[in-house]
Amino acid sequence: MENKSEKCDKPRKKGGRPLSFDREAALERAMLVFWRYGYEAASLSELTSAMGITPPSLYAAFGDKEQLFLEAVERYSTKSCDALQCLFDEAPTARDAIERLLQSSAVDNTCPSHPPGCLVVTATTNCSASAEHVQTAMTERRDNVETMIKTRIEQGVNEGELPAGTDPGTLASFYATVIQGMSTQARDTGDRDKLLAIAAAAMRAWPVSK
């Protein structure tokens, strides 16, 4: 992931006239709509219905659909990156950290309390050219995750846990790719056991000293 202080800062609330609804609760519900349908497929009527507000209230509170989406993604990313950092901090080794990440991804991607898969992976998959800058924002967040994975692997190399010739960048890209693929699998099948098996298979690629 990118610099945590840059990408995980919570969005600032806009000043002005007090809102007649719970902005944070409405944003959470909007996040779930984008998560289920994707950025472009989520209609204004679906968003306002889920949020329990009118279109004018949406525009007054969030600006427009794009800004609402970016703020919803920021909310999602903040929670995700905080959880990932906590997981990495608690794991005794780099290998354990990556294994826990893959296993938690399998569980989170198939959790029945929210749409399947990862919002940051799936929300802009089929967007038109007009949404290119929104897709770029999602790419940055996926890169942010990969950077965090790389940093944890580098720590393992420096501590002598992994072979000295290990390429942290390539290994991080591999596991980031596995995680993104697991998100797609979750959307297609929702099969948690299948995702856990993929996680186990991916860990067999972990470098070991000869």
From TrEMBL:
- Family annotation (Pfam families): TetR_C_13 (PF16925), TetR_N (PF00440)
Q: Which PANTHER family match?
A: HTH-TYPE TRANSCRIPTIONAL REGULATOR YJDC (PTHR47506:SF1), TRANSCRIPTIONAL REGULATORY PROTEIN (PTHR47506)
Name of the featured protein: TetR/AcrR family transcriptional regulator
Q: What keywords are annotated for this sequence in UniProt?
A: DNA-binding, Repressor, Transcription, Transcription regulation
Q: Taxonomically, which superkingdom?
A: Bacteria
Residues of the DNA-binding region: 43-62
Which InterPro entries has this protein been placed in? DNA-bd_HTH_TetR-type_CS, Homeodomain-like_sf, HTH_TetR, Tet_transcr_reg_TetR-rel_C_sf, TetR_C
HTH tetR-type domain residues are 20-80
Can you name the source organism? Answer: Herminiimonas glaciei
For this protein's source organism, the top of the classification is: Bacteria, Pseudomonadati, Pseudomonadota, Betaproteobacteria, Burkholderiales
